[in-house]
Structures are given as C-alpha cells and as structure tokens.
Amino acid sequence: QVQLVESGGGSVQPGGSLRLSCAVSGSIFSIGVMGWYRQAPGKQRELVASITSGGSTNYAESVKGRFTISRDNAKNTVYLQMNSLKPEDTAVYYCNVRVLGVPYWGQGTQVTVSS
C-alpha cells in the first residue's frame, strides 16, 4: 500500500503564493517520477509539473517562471512552490507518484485564487 498525503492548499489573492506538499508513505521500494496535476471545474486534469528521481523537471507552459517543483528523496516528499498566482490557477491540485511504474494519486487539495 502506498499513501499520499497532500497539504498546503487554500485561498489567496492574485499575485500571492502558496506551497503544496505531498508526503508519500507505505510500501515504497523506490519512487520514480513525482508530479502535480490540477483539475478546474469543467476541465480535464492537466499536468502542472513533474520531477524525476534525478531532479529533472518539466512544467506546463502556463506555469513556467511562476511555479517550482522540488523533492526531498530522504523524506519521500514532493513540493510545489506557486508564486504570482492567477485566478486561472484555481483548481484542485493532485499529487501523483510512480512506484515501480505504478501511478498513485493523492486526495487533492483545493487552491482558490480570487480577489
């Protein structure tokens, strides 16, 4: 069993910042790619950012320069630092990790950007 616990969502004004965390626990042999996805109402879930075990990162064009993904392999935790938030960033954010190639999802955390 692999469990993902997310934290750090909330409400913020445009231009503000939030930091999401996702801690992975359970039967972990090794964690491969870790990432964050988001889903806004009426839209499909989309990749926001991902990071490999070696630290290579990938970002959606819409968040480049504003969001930073990082991971702490010793703590089995992935982070998403979100700066200069915009109303269009409003969504439920989901953590995703691959353990021996099998994908696991967090429960989701709401991020709302509104004045």
Task: Give helix % range.
Answer: under 10%
Please give the largest β-sheet: 7 strands, mixed
Overall pLDDT metric: 95
How many strand units?
11
**Helix-strand string:** EEEEEEEEEEE
DSSP helical segment count: 0
- Poorly predicted runs are none
Mind telling me the C-alpha Rg? 13 Å
Distance between the termini: 40 Å
The gross shape turns out to be globular
Beta-strand percentage range:
over 45%
Structural class: mainly beta
List the defining traits of the structure above.
115 residues; mainly beta; seven-stranded mixed beta sheet; four-stranded antiparallel beta sheet; 11 strands; 57% strand; globular
Question: Summarize this, please?
Answer:
By secondary structure, the protein is mostly beta strands. The chain has strands at 2-7, 10-12, 18-26, 31-39, 46-51, 57-59, 67-72, 77-82, 91-99, 102-105, 109-113.
Question: Could you explain how this protein is built, in words?
Answer:
The chain is an all-beta fold and 115 residues long. The protein has strands at residues 2-7, 10-12, 18-26, 31-39, 46-51, 57-59, 67-72, 77-82, 91-99, 102-105, 109-113. Strands 2, 4, 5, 6, 9, 10 and 11 form a 7-stranded mixed beta sheet that branches. A hairpin with a 5-residue loop joins β5 (46-51) and β6. The model has no long low-confidence stretch (mean pLDDT 95).
Produce the secondary structure layout:
Elements: E1 2-7, E2 10-12, E3 18-26, E4 31-39, E5 46-51, E6 57-59, E7 67-72, E8 77-82, E9 91-99, E10 102-105, E11 109-113
Parallel strand pairs: 2-11
Antiparallel strand pairs: 1-3, 3-8, 4-5, 4-9, 5-6, 7-8, 9-10, 9-11
